[in-house]
Amino acid sequence: MTGLGQSPFGPHRLTIEPLDVDRDVALLHAWVTHPRSAYWMMQDATLAQVRAEYAGIEADPHHDAFLGRADGRPAFVVETYDPARCEAGGLVGLPDLCPGDLGMHVLVAPPEDEPVPGFTTDVFDAVLAHCFADPSVRRVVVEPDVRNAPVRAKNVAAGFVELREVAVPGKTAMLSVCTREAYAAAAQVSHLRPAPMARAQRHLVAKAISEYAHERLVTPRRTPDVGADAWVLETSGSTYAFTARVHALEHWVIDEESLVRTVGGERAPLDAQDLVAELAPALGIPAALLPVYLEEIASTLASASWKVVNSTLTARELVEADYQTIEGAMTEGHPAFVANNGRIGFGVDDYLAFAPETAREVRLRWLGVRRSRGHLSLADGLDEEAHYRAELGEDGVDRLRGRLAALGLDPADYLLVPVHPWQWRTKLAVTFAPDVARRDLVDLGEGEDGYRAQQSIRTFFNVSRPERCYVKTALSIQNMGFMRGLSPAYMTATPAINDWVARTVHADPELRDCGFRVLREVAAVGYTGDAFHRHAERSPHQKMVAALWRESPVPELGDGERLATMASLLHRDAHGDALVTALVKASPLDAADWVRAFLRAYLRPLVHCLLAHELAFMPHGENLVMVLRGHVPVRMLMKDVGEEVAVMGDQPLPPEVERIRADVPEELRSLAVHTDVMDGVLRYVAAILAEDGLLDDAGFWALAREVVEEHAGDHPELSGTAARYDLLRPEFRHSCLNRLQLRNTLEMVDISDQASSLAFAGTIANPLAR
Asked: What is the reported pTM?
């Protein structure tokens, strides 16, 4: 049996295996006779006595012993026993016992150095998971010494209920039981404990100071008398001292462990919500919206605490991992936004079921939507029947339509719409109750395919049949400055827009040479027959029943190629090791050549799209899928096109595509590269490589400039546009993302006019400048 746990100060794979008395007796003797193991009641035991004790356990059909390891090293011993038949716990004959009870003892090895905070709790979690892995176990029973307050506290935190004191051989015990249901309930919040939360707080405070300083919302002050890299930030109530380095594009890297907060001269715990509240006037958060932002900060901390406890994969392991393993292992969320895991609306059970980092398999719910009150748009050459059968299979389509027929409804009158399970249970079955009763919306049950939530949380990858499309669903939770719905009206043109963008991109010889391709959103469906569409102004209620399908990247792969989200290049594991650094070291290239290949796959095609077609994407890490060969990015696949693409020129567009024309002042058009590529992605990659000693800032940005200049040399016909946009000019407008969310935490931009929503903080030095 294997349990997975993690110390808050580093990941640990916790495994549990049968004890080998001959092999392990010396180890056991050292543990049970250690002064810290006094409650084990074997302080004076000889080696022979310890051997005899565990040989007796080995021979007892109602008593078992196991050795636990942390990362392969012996770390704890576990005993389980039948309390009604085995004398080990001294509980035989007690009326409190029930069928399905399992007794348990656990001893964590005395530490050689200072104890690692949280490790014992992680071990305890793994042991309980081991016990309840046997479906016949209904309760776990323990009988700690009544004087052992720390162990009793851990028991209660894990879901145990203390029943009463009982006299057992050698001690007075506190009889305690944990039911399977109590264990499950406690496990939902087992990550919300002091040590992992403290680490989450430290990380988020460091990130907040870094990003707010980058956006010039706060101004840390150097303290050279303390050290060359020493800084201090004064707020209305606290002082924060830390060491940090400032890289190109005013990118701050704070040494998290150096952070010290003092209040009134006394050291105080780091608290991200306190930091935000102290800085609220400087951050410009409207007083009425501060609670919403603080709630998103709290949710972000909860998610970070869960990741501290559960994210065990190392950067070296991720180098060889498959696409969805990498996707689920990401721990940061959006790199720029401080409150980036809000997910307001999810309960703790929803978080565990649907958050991308929990990597749970999800089955989507399917609805029949009355055709006369809905709309289905399809890409060129795709008809409705072919689409549904490609995504559901022949049997799947027939099964769903059979359910409609069984209700006396004509299947031809209905569109088939996938919805998020949470959306159906929490919103649609309640908010759209009249529509369900009218049979305008008909619940058809779960689909057969398993899906995984992506980092964008409302988009799902088909893990049962990876060649099938992603499904993007409406999800009425508040996350990162938006309610995450989908507008049926807005999406009507999505397949046509994707067709046009894909034709433009795929027909361009330069982009073909770069291997740059678009994953099209080939179908969009939605329902508009509700009261909110009939009687209300624009609102989130009009974005609750809709979905789209996007092409999978899997069919794009060639021999020897694999996929990874580009967001993974910004990932550091629990040890602080960066995946991009591990990829470079695993590749046959040196750092400079690896970066050059990456920039030619990523930066060059986006520069070309801007200069040749005045076409801009939202190319952050989660919107691009890297194709890797030999651990080197060789080409990029662009996704999430329908909502996040813009044409900024006056070129003719088909009427159905006209929606994506953006009226952007010419002096701001270069921000499609300066802000969205350089500030949004490359500043993080450059800083990681510099901090890890692979490539300094000057070297990285010289390579980026080289890629831009090489493109210019290859395309003299674009020299006029290139001169107007001047990507190599000394500075550019400093467009800031957190400023958008801070001024309106409910809807940070108007999606139909995003350019007018931008928030600036002056200009910033351009590291591409000659």
From this structure: 0.88
